[in-house]
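Anyone opening a protein record will find just a pair of labelled lines. A complete record is shown below as an example:
=====
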Amino acid sequence: MKKGLIFDLDGTLVDSLPGIAATLNRCLATHGFPEHSDAAVRTFVGDGLRKLIERATPRQTGPEQTQALVALFKKDYETLWQQGTPPFPGIPDLLHQLQQNGHPLAILSNKPHEVTGTIVRTVFPTIHFQAVLGQQDGTPLKPDPASALRIAGQLGLAPADCILIGDSSIDIQTAANAGMSSVAVDWGYHDRDKLTAAGAKLIAATPTELTATLEAQPDTTA
C-alpha cells in the first residue's frame, strides 16, 4: 500500500500570503492600527489566526480587541480569500499524479476549519482528499500531534506509514511529534536554514522534486 500523504495548505499547496495580508491589513485599518507588508506578514503566519493577529498588533492590544480582530478577519477572509490564494505552479499536476499513483491524500492546516475546506474544494475540485482538517475549537494546533494522528486513523494507516509535507518548522515538528516522517518544501514561509534547524532531512525545491522524493519513499508494510 502507498504511503499516506498529509499536506499542509498555506505556503505548501497554495500561495495564500497575498490574500491573508490583504485581509489582515483591512482589519487593522478598521481599528486604526498600522498595516504591514507581505514580507512582514509572512513572518506572522503559521501558528493559527489568533497568533497572526497578536503578532500584527501593538503589544498593548487587549484580549477583547484581539478577539474582535479575529472575528473580523474570519468574516472578511471567508468571502474574499479568492482574491489572493492561487495554487503554486505545478501543484495541481503534482496532486493529480500522486492521486493516480494510489497515494491516500489529506490536508492538515492551522487555518480555521471551515475556510480550509472551502479553499480545498474550490482550488482542487478534482482531487480526492480523504481527510481535510483545519483549526477547530477544542483541538490543539500543530505542532501538537492530535490532528495528524486523527488523520492517520481516517486514512486507516499507522503514523509511521504517513508522510507530512509542509513549508514550516511547525510541520516538521508536528510530524516528529506524531511519529511520522516528513518532507519540507522551500517555496513557502520558512527558508531552508530554518527548516534544517527544525530537523528537516528531506527538502524539495520544486513540485517535480517533491513528487520524485515522495515516490522514492518505500510503500507501507500493510
Observations:
- The radius of gyration is 17 Å.
